[in-house]
Amino acid sequence: MPEAHTKTPMDPADRSDLRWWQHLDREKWKAFFAAWLGVLLDGYDFVLISFALPLIMVAFDLSLVQGAALVSAAFISRWIGGLVLGAVADRSGRKPAMVLSMVLFAVSSVALAFAPNFWILFLARLAIGFAMAGEYSSSATYIIESWPKHMRNKASGFLLSGFAFGVILAAQVDKYLVSWVESWHPGWGWRALFLTGIVPIFLALYMRRRLPEAEDWKAAQAADSSAKKERDAFGILFGGSRRLVNIFGSVVAAVALLVIFAVSGVPAWLVVVLSLICAAVFVSFITQFNPQRWVTGVAIMIAIFASFMYTWPIQGLLPTYLDGVGFDKDVVANIVTVAGFGNAIGYIVAGFAGDALGMRRWYTISLIISQLLVFPLFMQGGEYVLLVGALLFLNQLFGQGISGLLPKWVTSYFPVEQRAAGLGFAYNVGALGGAVGPFLGASLADSYGLGTALAVLSVGFAVIVILSIGLNLPRRLQARVNRDAVRPEDGDDEVLART
């Protein structure tokens, strides 16, 4: 059912005399910056593997495909992390889920630092992905639900800028720390890099003590306490009559993904079969969330899968590409930093432009601009450092930065009591594109070169995202199957701020 929104004399949307930042009191700003720092540290921990990968590949004698598997590993576990930790956020509150996720992040990062072989690295990356999904869904719902409805594009975009600043921080720490540690303890530079991931524990302790709970979640809890466990996503899947079947399905999907991404030499036909089994499990789960709206859930997952397929081959393999075209380590770090600033500014621009022009309109415009830059970026072969930096800056500003609105777009399709788990599950099933993308990019690079592979993947999958969000395909497809199940705010929750 659509959420009711009744204006009151103090409704922020009515206070046109205020600047946008004046709609937020001190507590909301404090909560925002704490969550933003959490996303920054998650982004920092999450992308450390990209910088450490060349040294790890040498240390353990790994192929490029095996190295890409370590990047992909964190995406394999995100779907179950989003579901489990998202359910914690829906049942117990957004804040406890954020704290738990950050502690898992820190512990997993330390495990990476002391990993003795490829498989321990792989398992630690699985844990990173599990925690990342929970932190992402709980932080996004926490801030979006805490900010006024007419400012939630800003909330979404501003929050996700933390991830980009985490990438920038990782690039600079890698630039200075690794070489320093290597100078007095060879072989430990990349391990020291992961040891810095302990920092989120301290922020988690602060958040646990100081932050208020999200307003929408508190209001929903106070308004209706009946049958909450039955309505939330985890209760639906693992608390009802189909719990044993769903537990079995979860195990099957997890094993299938591990075989696809962690076992070498798997024949193509088996990869296809296992992929179809995983798809069947995920569609079954999203159908059980709300049998009347399964089309919406599937369409969201496809759009997000395509979004990760156009972004993460570049995100995950960019340092490897730059190294391959002849740039030295310091130049790679500087270019990645420039790209990170483009990404961060893009998130902020997306927040303002989304509120001014509409979320879906700006998404379409921004993404088209980004893809016009992709082939010039990768086809010039890295000959001109300044040109590479400028093109990457703009590509990330318009292409990656616009994804700051994805949490806002996805949450518009879910009611409060299923929002964190719905976002966590649908978004992170789609995020498997982040596992497939680097893996596929590395595989295609053997035949076509890494630059060509990255360009083709980016443009091809960006078209799917443009159509899905620009035309609001989840809503349109849902209307064709069951018009009565369409909510007014599906894909366009600005309507809530206008009513």
Measured by DSSP, the beta-strand proportion falls in under 5%
Number of strands: 0
Q: Estimate percent helicity.
A: over 70%
- Helix count? 24
- Main beta sheet: strand number and arrangement? none
Structural classification: mainly alpha
Which stretches are low in confidence, meaning pLDDT under 50 for 5 or more residues running?
A: 1-14
- The SSE order reads HHHHHHHHHHHHHHHHHHHHHHHH
Q: What is the straight-line distance between the termini?
A: 15 Å
Mean residue pLDDT:
81
Calculate Rg over CA atoms.
22 Å
Shape: globular
Explain what the structure shows:
- 79% of the residues lie in helices and 0% in strands.
- The protein has 499 residues and is mostly helical.
- The two termini are 15 Å apart.
- Mean pLDDT is 81; it is low at 1-14.
Sum up the structure in keywords:
24 helices, mainly alpha, single chain, 499 residues
